[in-house]
Amino acid sequence: MTEKKESVHVKESKKAKVKELVELIKKYGVIGLLNLEKMPSSQLQSIRSSIRKDIRILSVKKSLLTRAFEALGYKDLDEKVSGSPALLLTNLNPFKVYKLIDKNKSKLPIKTGQIAPYDLIISQGDTPFTPGPIIGELGAIGVKAKVDKGKIVIIKDSVVAKKGEPVTGPVSSMLLKLGVKPVEISLNINVIKEGKTIYTKDILSTDFEGLIGVGFNNAKNLVLNTGIFEPSLINEILQKAHLNALMLNGFVHPDQAIKVAAPVITEQKKEKKEDKEEVKEEKSKVDAVEALGALFG
User: Fold this and answer.
1) pTM for the full model?
2) Mean pLDDT, to the nearest integer, of 213-235?
3) Do the bridges between strand 158-161 and strand 151-154 make them parallel or antiparallel, or are there none, so unpaired?
4) Which one has a higher pLDDT value, 272 or 215?
5) Which of 96, 137, 220, 247 has its CA 20 to 30 A from that of 76?
6) Under the phi-then-psi rule, with left for phi > 0, alpha for psi from -120 to 50, and beta for the rest, what region is 120?
């Protein structure tokens, strides 16, 4: 009889937790699913602390999460639960969420056998070490050092592990002593849901600013190559027309066109550089978007 009462109590307790979780999720417009497998607790706490103002991270048992998603009708999210799940709750735009998380990566020392994420370099300059066995340890991994004013000094930059290669024990140990932490770790986002839209990591990581730049350049080339008149590109249009006229009248051979155009291109780059110094980056992005709109009506 006692066992039955305990079983009923556990079921009621789980129902209460599911209900509580459902009500919490409803308070936020954007819900994300994370996988915290292999995430050290200290790094998790550090990242959580840095984004706490805008994003809430909640570790939840799979069974509890599945029941909450079922209650909410979030089958699309339920299918994405994996590893050691956690909920991301916020009212920020999903792309801002991704950028914020990407910005707040934590760094770790690299362990023996781990693959170097890039060329690992011990840089030229002073070290905190006094003369001793460590100068031999540096030499053993190909780092030239000397003693100067009672301290060990690295003579020149030395690559101690190349990108894509496993890191050896001596290299790992030396990087740790020097305080070099080349391993970046971040929250592993499975998906983020806003309304009825699901955003995967490959979509969230898209460089839309870069795409706008490519689109602007393509639109500019379209104008220059089809004769469409666009006031904002009047200088480039006249320069191209002038060069075409020179080639048409035999003053410039097509093979020499690049040489003739080079000074003009150089001057344009100089002007653009000066403009960038005077105008803020955000203003430039707005101008690019406005120019695109003007080109395509």
Assistant:
1) 0.58
2) 65
3) unpaired
4) 215
5) 96
6) beta
Residues 101-130: tens digit of each pLDDT: 888 888 889 999 999 999 999 999 999 999
Within a 10 A sphere around the Cβ of 83, how many other Cβ atoms?
Answer: 15
pLDDT (tens digit, 9 = 90+) per residue, 235-285?
776 676 666 666 666 655 555 544 444 444 444 445 455 555 554 555 454
Is-contact 237 230, C-beta < 8 A?
yes
For the domain with range 120-184, which CATH number is right: 3.90.220.20, 2.40.30.10, 2.40.160.20, 3.90.105.20? 3.90.105.20
Spatial separation of the C-alpha atoms in residues 261 and 268, rounded to whole Å = 11
2-105+186-204 CATH fold: Alpha-Beta Plaits (3.30.70)
Q: Contact, 31 vs 87, CB < 8 A? A: yes
Please count the CA atoms within 13 angstroms of the CA of 254 that sit on its side-chain side: 1
d(CA 254, CA 119): 44
Coil, helix or strand for 240?
A: helix
User: Residue 82 is which amino acid?
Assistant: S
Amino acid code (one letter) for 281:
E
DSSP codes, 33-98: EEE-TT--HHHHHHHHHHHTTTEEEEE--HHHHHHHHHHHT-HHHHTT--SSEEEEEESS-HHHHH
